[in-house]
Amino acid sequence: MGRYLGSSCKQCRREGIKLMLKGIRCESAKCPIEKRERNTAPGQHGWRRGKNSDYGVRLREKQKVKRFYGLFEKQFMKTYGMAERIKGNTGENLLVLLERRLDNVVYKLNFAPSRKSARLLVSHGHVYLNGRKCDIPSVLVKVGDKLVLKNADKSSKKVKEQLESNPNFSVQSWLQLDSSKPEAMVVAMPSRDDVQLPIEENLVVEYCSK
């Protein structure tokens, strides 16, 4: 499984917005976006952020979606192909499929501080899906799926610490969480309103459909 080994903050600077790749640390003063002198694109000439062409605007929107969810190009285009084959709005279908990824669900349940951490939690075998260990972050959950943690102190300790560190975290209505165990269930499919990210999916579709 490939993964990005570069600086997470560099990705945020390239897109010009906070991608929340480091969880709560992105809300602190340590975030380079908060530092006026570093709020530029990375690279020697990053300060020359000019006006994008129409193609550039669509490309940046596609890159933003990929980086929010931590995908590579091949993974993203495979998901886009699935979205095209589903009836309805392709852009909304794409975002719903991305929301249904197991690593994203683990993040939305506050089991991990970021999607990157959630991906590691899944790939290291700490999460069980419907009673079976599932170490594939890209698995799509469906209604009725049940998520529990591996029966090990190391697994539960990490998640309980995360839940306790953010007690005011609000779980979305399509997920049901029992934080005392902790375990969760998917009670509905996510909608476009559940994608609380600054994304214009129509621009992504325009880029990918060419």
What key attributes describe this structure?
alpha+beta; Ribosomal Protein S4 Delta 41, Chain A, domain 1; Structural Genomics Hypothetical 15.5 Kd Protein In mrcA-pckA Intergenic Region, Chain A; 3 domains; 5-stranded antiparallel beta sheet; 8 helices; globular
Q: What percent of residues are in strands?
A: 5-15%
The CATH superfamily of the largest domain is known as RNA-binding S4 domain
Low-confidence stretches: none
**Can you give the mean pLDDT?**
83
First and last CA, distance:
28 Å
Number of strands: 5
Structural write-up:
- The chain has 210 residues and is α+β, with helices and mostly antiparallel strands.
- The protein has three domains: 1-50, Ribosomal Protein S4 Delta 41, Chain A, domain 1 (Orthogonal Bundle); 54-100 and 199-210, Ribosomal Protein S4 Delta 41, Chain A, domain 1 (Orthogonal Bundle); 102-189, Structural Genomics Hypothetical 15.5 Kd Protein In mrcA-pckA Intergenic Region, Chain A.
- The chain is 40% helix and 8% strand.
- The chain is built from eight helices and five strands; from the N terminus they run H-H-H-H-H-H-E-E-E-H-E-E-H.
- It has helices spanning 8-15, 54-69, 73-84, 90-99, 102-108, 115-123, 153-165, 201-208; strands spanning 127-129, 132-133, 146-149, 175-178, 183-186.
- It has a five-stranded antiparallel β-sheet with strand order 2-1-3-5-4, covered by helices on one side.
- Helix 3 (73-84) crosses helix 4 (90-99), helix 4 crosses helix 8 (201-208) and helix 5 (102-108) packs across helix 6 (115-123).
- The protein is globular, with a radius of gyration of 18 Å.
- The two termini are 28 Å apart.
- The model has no long low-confidence stretch (mean pLDDT 83).
